[in-house]
Each structure stands twice: as structure tokens, then as C-alpha cells.
Design goal:
The protein is α+β, with helices and mostly antiparallel strands and 112 residues long. It folds into 2 domains: 2-41, no CATH class; 62-102, no CATH class. The chain has helices at 2-15, 21-41, and strands at 62-67, 72-74, 81-83, 97-102. The strands form 2 sheets. The chain has a two-stranded antiparallel sheet. It has a two-stranded antiparallel sheet with strand order 2-3. A hairpin with a 6-residue loop joins strand 2 (72-74) and strand 3. It is rod-shaped, with a radius of gyration of 36 Å.
Length: 112
């Protein structure tokens, strides 16, 4: 610690040649205290970050939901039943309108 102090006194004296002895001592004391404070703040365990692990709670879980916005009815053009929105002839098709649904989001539109 003493050699570190002497090194800092020489450095500050060289950087500030007109500084008084009291000012040099004050600057050296402040720098030593800052170094000591930084050393105390470093955690012993490098894995210890003092921050919570939010990888489980802040996950984004979105899914796509497909549906038809039309009606399953008899088409006058094709003369068979189909969806009126996309003209798909399969009644169990996935859907032509895709919506992203966030599973973590609160639904406030109704009581159920």
C-alpha cells in the first residue's frame, strides 16, 4: 500500500507541478479511497450478479391462431359448399385469417 501511495504522489506531482503538498495529499487520498471502495464492491463469486434470473418469467410465448371470418355455405359460383372468405372446400381447414395471440397477456375484455 505504501509503494502504491508513493507512486500516486509522484504521478500527481508530475501531472500538477504547481499543486501544494496538501492538495497532492488530498488527491492521492481520494484516489486510494476510490480504489479501496471498488475492490470492496467486487463480488467474491463472479457468478453472483445480485440480479434476479428473469429468463423464466419474461418469456415471450406467442402463438398463431387461425380462423375463418366468413361463413360455410353453398357457393353460387362453384356449386358446392365452401368458406365464403377464402373459397376453401374443406370444412375443417385451418383458417385464412392469422392472429398472433400472447399467452401471457391479461384478457380484460370479459369476466370469463
Amino acid at each position: 500500500m505504501a509503494e502504491e501511495r508513493e507512486r500516486l504522489v509522484k504521478k500527481v506531482s508530475y501531472d500538477m507541478p504547481r499543486a501544494t503538498k496538501n492538495k497532492v495529499e488530498a488527491i492521492v487520498f481520494k484516489q486510494l479511497q476510490e480504489q479501496k471502495h471498488i475492490e470492496e464492491m467486487e463480488p467474491v463469486d463472479p457468478e453472483l450478479t445480485l440480479r434476479p434470473d428473469t429468463s423464466k418469467t419474461l418469456r415471450v410465448s406467442t402463438a398463431k391462431k387461425y380462423y375463418h371470418n366468413g361463413k360455410w355455405e353453398m357457393s353460387t359460383v362453384e356449386k358446392e359448399e365452401c368458406w365464403s372468405c377464402c373459397m376453401n372446400a374443406d370444412p375443417n381447414s385451418e383458417g385464412c385469417v392469422a392472429v398472433k395471440v400472447d399467452k401471457q397477456r391479461w384478457i380484460l375484455s370479459s369476466y370469463t
